[in-house]
Design a protein that fits this description.
single chain, alpha+beta, five-stranded antiparallel sheet
């Protein structure tokens, strides 16, 4: 996919995919999904709740000020992270009353229940591939390529990424969004995660990780979803 506004041209060397090009901002939540009863398997509902809330607030900001750019920094707060988990687990509990045998539900299954009326699935479910054999921008099924193609020209987009059994949320700006490279930069690409990541990001609870561009967002995703080398006994 060609570089778009807000996304720098993809680096030419794979070594550039190990360190963010600009400072990354962390927001640490007070709880994780494991802090709440029945939250262990509720990450899809939590991610959808976060998507619903962030898109509504971005839309409101855009309507009132003419632009939603840069507003992620004011939306993604400690309280936002906490309420996404509490209300997401509440939805999970309500769905479990209807389907007692439910452990995990896919995002499309949850959306089909009408639990999040402000959300709609915009596009098919895509299956990606993690690989270390080539730089991410050269992988046709890699995160960089698929997320770049998922951006809309005028609207903010949320993408749920699932690597069983975990689901996280990514927030992407319109392709027309411009980001500054000053210090600190403007942050328009976000990773919202209800899981603790103490080793990757010193996140003892949930967190939101804000980035200035798609390149840096993919670096964060690579940290929590590393590729696994398949042995000769695993068919392609």
């Amino acid at each position: 996919a060609p570089p778009s506004a807000g996304n720098p041209p993809p680096p030419n060397a794979s070594s550039l995919w190990s360190t963010p090009s600009l400072p990354v901002r962390m927001v640490h939540g007070p709880i994780s999904q494991y802090s709440v009863e029945n939250g262990r398997s509720a990450c899809t509902c939590i991610a959808l709740r976060a998507a619903s809330d962030v898109l509504v607030q971005l839309s409101n900001n855009s309507t009132s000020s003419g632009s939603g750019s840069g507003s992620l920094e004011t939306i993604l707060t400690v309280t936002f992270l906490q309420m996404s988990i509490v209300l997401g687990v509440e939805t999970y509990d309500n769905l479990k009353v209807v389907d007692a045998g439910m452990e995990h539900k896919s995002a499309e299954e949850v959306l089909a229940t009408g639990s999040y009326p402000s959300l709609s699935q915009d596009g098919p479910v895509l299956q990606g591939m993690l690989s270390s054999t080539s730089p991410p921008e050269q992988q046709p099924l890699g995160l960089y390529t698929l997320l770049s193609a998922s951006q809309d020209s005028t609207n903010w987009t949320c993408v749920l990424i699932t690597k069983p059994p975990e689901t996280v949320l990514v927030v992407l700006p319109p392709t027309t969004t411009t980001t500054t490279t000053t210090s600190p930069p403007s942050y328009s690409f976000a990773l919202i995660d209800s899981h603790p990541r103490p080793q990757q990001f010193q996140a003892q609870q949930s967190y939101a990780r804000l980035h200035a561009n798609l390149h840096d967002l993919v670096i964060s995703l690579n940290a929590i979803f590393p590729c696994a080398q398949l042995g000769p006994d695993i068919p392609e």
